[in-house]
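MODEL INPUT / OUTPUT PAIR
PAIR INDEX: 1
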Amino acid sequence: MKGKAAAIALCLAAGGLLVPATGFVTSAEAGRCVTKRGKGWAWTQDMAKFQAWEIVAQLSGNWPIQTDTFRNERYKCKKDGDGYTCLSWIDVCKS
């Protein structure tokens, strides 16, 4: 009986390793995450997004070396004069 229970437990554990990551955040992970905002301006939209991302990285202590995980990055960009202004909302999760 013990052998059968061990075999079932081993199969369940092995099966868990084959399940692909779903991208869902557990409640424990969510407790470690904080949404930070940034704003950037540049000549191109991609550069403005990077500026908005970089502000979040600096404010969260992840610049120049990123030590935390950034999730759910959201950007809203608009034409602004000769360039673009982008706002960012990024969930910063402590590692």
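PAIR INDEX: 2
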Amino acid sequence: MKRILIMFSLMTLLAVSAFAKTSINKVTNVKTAVSSSQNLDFSEEQKKQIKLVQDQYMTEVQKIENMNVSQQDKEEAHKQAILKSRDRLSQILTPEQMKILMNSNL
């Protein structure tokens, strides 16, 4: 019984770790796309505001990863955090910039 519990714990840990890496990769993709200001031509004020949105998103991701809830609940929380960040970005960027950003497979 103890072995089964240990195996289950390890499998759960690996699954959470894999999901966290996926989330971090998504965050890296967002940072890469957002930081490519040559294509998006950000103003200095937009850059400051975008950095704030990125920091808020990373804080939210850390909170989600530390939650003691099911994997499905974490995935849903990640989706909500992404949607909230996109909404914030849409308030900062012009419609043209937002279109370019969304077309960069985020």
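PAIR 2 NOTE: The CA atoms of residues 75 and 99 lie 25 Å apart.
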